[in-house]
Specification:
The protein has helices spanning 24-34, 44-49, 60-75; strands spanning 17-19, 81-88, 98-110, 113-124, 129-138. By secondary structure, the chain is an alpha+beta fold. It has one domain (5-138): Hotdog Thioesterase (Thiol Ester Dehydrase, Chain A, Roll), CATH 3.10.129.10. A hairpin with a 2-residue loop joins strand 3 and strand 4 (113-124). The radius of gyration is 17 Å and the shape is elongated.
């Protein structure tokens, strides 16, 4: 899915990517790896008690990692991501599909190559926007 630097224009929406079927087992593993004690990631009784529904909640950082992986695929490498900043707007739950997207907001040709500014997002399919942000890529 790598994008060609010479085809980019300001205002262009980049190809989207969908992460399908966020798995509760993966959410639990990430909670263990991060030593994240928040029970919304592994305890359905607590999720229900808090009024968050019937599915565990994905870590915001994991959803942000989906965005970073998407950008790395577009740009051809993780090293191509020069900066990324995200704001968390909504939850991603076990079983959700998430569409990742970006729109070009600036293009600067430098001595090191082309720097592309983007607005980025992660949308829950059938739900709301979970993440908005910005990124700068070297392509």
């Amino acid at each position: 899915m790598t994008i060609a630097a010479d085809t980019l224009v300001v205002g262009a929406e980049l190809p989207t990517h969908t992460v399908t079927d966020i798995r509760s087992d993966d959410i639990r593993v990430v909670a263990l790896v991060l030593r994240d004690p928040n029970p919304i990631h592994f305890d359905l009784d607590e999720v229900r008690r808090l009024g968050l529904g019937e599915r565990v909640v994905n870590q915001g950082g994991a959803t942000m990692a989906y965005v970073a992986n998407y950008l790395a695929d577009l740009a051809g490498s993780r090293a191509a991501i020069k900066s990324m900043s995200c704001e968390f707007r909504g939850n991603v739950l076990a079983g959700d599909d998430v569409v990742l997207g970006a729109m070009v907001t600036s293009i600067d040709d430098t001595s090191e190559g082309r720097r592309v500014g983007c607005d980025v997002w992660a949308d829950v399919v059938g739900g709301k926007r979970a993440i908005i942000g910005t990124a700068v890529l070297h392509v």
